């Protein structure tokens, strides 16, 4: 693999500008961005492995690749690439003329295009290469200094994101070259070569960076964005302070890593991985020091009392007067407000087609336990809420109409999307005991942790016990392990079962239930699965990241499960 990548790096010797080279290497580093290895960190194993391989090769292509990685790589990759590049330069390995300009950029201006819904921000940051960089006559010493300075700048304040799954992106450098007129290319090599980094920040996805690309047609890009906003009441385009742009983009890229975690890369664009390293490096060229600008319509955090007051105001308004079940409508309004506060940056009054569809068809079916009356009322309450909230945020009439149309369309699919657990034969009172917090996503793992909740055991009425309460939880676990009472270490053994049951109840870490499901799918007994989880938790101790990684590594139960 490394040999093939180093062979591909020979193309770096043929490119004419540092921008093309940076984009090619960013695309190369994106080939494994987000992937997970069963053991070890992918950036360490593959990224640092590539650096070590290039250092041993010692060719001009290897040196050029190392110079680019010293700017684009993670902190560890950059440090290793810097040292290897310096060693090769001291050996007088040849490098392209533009190599000394890699990463030598200055910000020119930042802008943001916002839609009237508050769904997303498209951030445009423009850069140019500095013209005071030394040429090939600057001797090896200046090149050494540049590699060291760029590597240090690249590491300063770097965020090391967790590694989610992704796939290699397209040829990033080719995308930019296609937008550059051939007649201008030679002139641009000697110029500042202005370019723009464009990043889409999606607030319906917790503010994550969902897409990124680069354009060399900066003036045309800005003129077009300004013209589109001038003629469209659903858009606004404005300048953004570079410090704010940096804070916003750092938050967005961190949110991408946190949101994806171990899940599918479907939430980001196919090309995001190709530009990830480039975007990370360019963001560090912006000045630090400001707080992240709040999304449109953000407010101060809502207390419980303030949420209740907003719900009461809605229910007393003309928009809610046609709702036939005031009690169910009140509970539905609470869910809508909680979603806006907890999942949408304290924006309960913000409405949009995407937000409403996500709430109705994704969030509620996964996370919220609704009784039959609430299931019947929810689409109607949401329609009334849209009419109530839209005027308060100044949403244009066309935005209101589009949102109402989206809710009407989603309402027809809600009955199929929302699966009431009682329709599978579960008693509603049992479901309520397992879900006192209404978190529907917790039902399966909690039922796995506490399977004996009905009937009697001796003189104990199991239906009177509540697993959310510590004392009742211990009684339930003792009954579950009645056959182990004669163990000399029963108290300690039960304490570990209680530890695992508590973690499963809380979903902390989420990898524990995922590991349990993998083992159950292989046909293993529940008791054996619990003991494997106990052994890992006892061995790892109070180290959350190590525990999550160890649980991720579970593929099967050993031949003899631990006691």
- Beta strand count: 7
Order of strands, main sheet, comes to: 4-3-2-1-5
| Structural category | alpha+beta
Instruction: Give the helices and strands as they follow along the chain.
Output: HHHHHEEHHHEEHEHHHHHHHHHEEHHHHH
Gyration radius over CA:
28 Å
Gap between N and C termini: 42 Å
Helix content: 40-55%
The major sheet is characterized as: 5 strands, antiparallel
What general outline do the C-alpha atoms trace? flat
Quaternary organisation: single chain
Individual helix count: 23
Mean pLDDT across all amino acids: 87
Number of domains: 4
Percent strand equals: 5-15%
Low-confidence stretches: 134-190
Give an overview of the whole structure.
The chain is of the alpha+beta class and about 575 residues long. Helices cover about 55% and strands about 10% of the residues. Helix 3 (about 40-55) packs antiparallel against helix 4 (about 60-70) and helix 4 (about 60-70) runs parallel beside helix 6. Residues about 135-190 have low confidence and may be disordered.
Can you describe this structure in just a few lines?
This protein is an alpha+beta fold.
Q: Helices, strands, pairings?
A:
Elements lengths: L1 H7 L9 H12 L12 H16 L2 H13 L2 H16 L14 E11 L4 E10 L9 H17 L16 H7 L3 H8 L5 E8 L5 E8 L2 H13 L4 E5 L2 H19 L11 H12 L20 H12 L10 H18 L9 H15 L4 H22 L3 H21 L10 H7 L8 H7 L6 E2 L2 E2 L8 H11 L9 H17 L3 H12 L4 H15 L3 H9 L11
Antiparallel strand pairs: 1-2, 1-5, 2-3, 3-4, 6-7
Helix pairs in contact: 1-3, 2-4, 2-7, 2-11, 3-4, 3-5, 4-5, 4-6, 5-6, 12-13, 13-15, 14-16, 15-16, 18-20, 20-22, 21-22, 21-23, 22-23
């Amino acid at each position: 693999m490394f040999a093939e990548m180093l062979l591909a790096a020979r193309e770096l010797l043929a490119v004419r500008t540092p921008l093309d080279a940076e984009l090619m290497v960013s695309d190369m580093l994106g080939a494994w961005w987000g992937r997970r290895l069963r053991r070890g960190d992918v950036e360490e194993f593959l990224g640092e492995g590539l650096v070590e391989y290039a250092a041993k090769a010692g060719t001009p292509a290897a040196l050029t690749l190392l110079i680019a990685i010293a700017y684009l790589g993670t902190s560890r990759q950059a440090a290793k690439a810097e040292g290897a590049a310096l060693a090769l330069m001291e050996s007088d390995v040849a490098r392209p003329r533009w190599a000394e300009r890699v990463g030598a950029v200055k910000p020119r201006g930042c802008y943001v295009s916002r839609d009237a819904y508050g769904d997303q921000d498209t951030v445009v940051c423009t850069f140019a290469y500095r013209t005071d960089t030394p040429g090939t006559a600057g001797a090896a010493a200046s090149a050494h200094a540049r590699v060291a300075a760029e590597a240090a700048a690249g590491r300063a304040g770097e965020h090391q994101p967790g590694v989610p799954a992704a796939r290699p992106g397209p040829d990033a450098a080719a995308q930019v070259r296609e937008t550059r007129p051939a007649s201008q290319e030679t002139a641009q090599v000697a110029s500042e070569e202005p370019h723009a980094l464009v990043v889409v920040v999606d607030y319906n996805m917790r503010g994550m960076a969902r897409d990124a690309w680069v354009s060399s047609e900066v003036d045309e890009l800005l003129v077009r964005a300004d013209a589109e906003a001038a003629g469209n009441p659903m858009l606004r385009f404005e300048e953004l302070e570079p410090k704010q742009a940096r804070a916003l983009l750092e938050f967005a890229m961190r949110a991408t890593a946190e949101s994806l975690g171990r899940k599918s890369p479907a939430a980001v664009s196919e090309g995001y991985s190709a530009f990830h390293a480039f975007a990370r490096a360019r963001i560090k060229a912006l000045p630090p020091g400001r707080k992240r600008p709040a999304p449109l319509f953000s407010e101060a955090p809502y207390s419980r009392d303030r949420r209740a007051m907003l719900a009461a105001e809605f229910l007393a308004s003309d928009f809610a007067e046609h709702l036939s079940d005031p009690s169910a409508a009140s509970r539905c309004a609470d869910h809508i407000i909680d979603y806006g506060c907890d999942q949408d940056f304290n924006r309960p009054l913000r409405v949009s087609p995407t937000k409403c569809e996500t709430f109705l068809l994704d969030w509620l079916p996964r996370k919220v336990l609704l009784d039959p009356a609430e299931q019947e009322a929810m689409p109607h309450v949401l329609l009334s809420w849209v009419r109530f909230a839209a005027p308060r945020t100044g949403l244009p009439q066309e935005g209101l109409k589009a949102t109402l149309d989206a809710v009407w369309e989603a309402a027809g699919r809600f009955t199929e999307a929302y699966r009431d657990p009682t329709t599978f034969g579960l008693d509603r009172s049992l479901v309520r005991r397992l879900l006192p917090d209404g978190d529907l996503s917790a039902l399966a793992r909690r039922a796995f942790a506490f399977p004996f909740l009905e009937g009697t055991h001796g003189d104990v009425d199991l239906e009177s016990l509540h697993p959310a309460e510590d004392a009742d939880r211990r009684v339930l676990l003792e009954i579950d392990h009645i056959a182990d009472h004669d163990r000399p270490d029963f108290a300690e053994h039960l304490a570990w079962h209680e530890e695992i049951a508590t973690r499963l109840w809380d979903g902390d870490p989420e990898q524990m239930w995922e590991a349990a499901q993998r083992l159950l799918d292989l046909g293993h007994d529940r008791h054996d699965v619990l003991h494997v989880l106990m052994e890992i938790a006892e061995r790892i101790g109070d180290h959350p990241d190590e525990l999550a990684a160890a649980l991720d590594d579970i593929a099967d139960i050993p031949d003899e499960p631990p006691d």
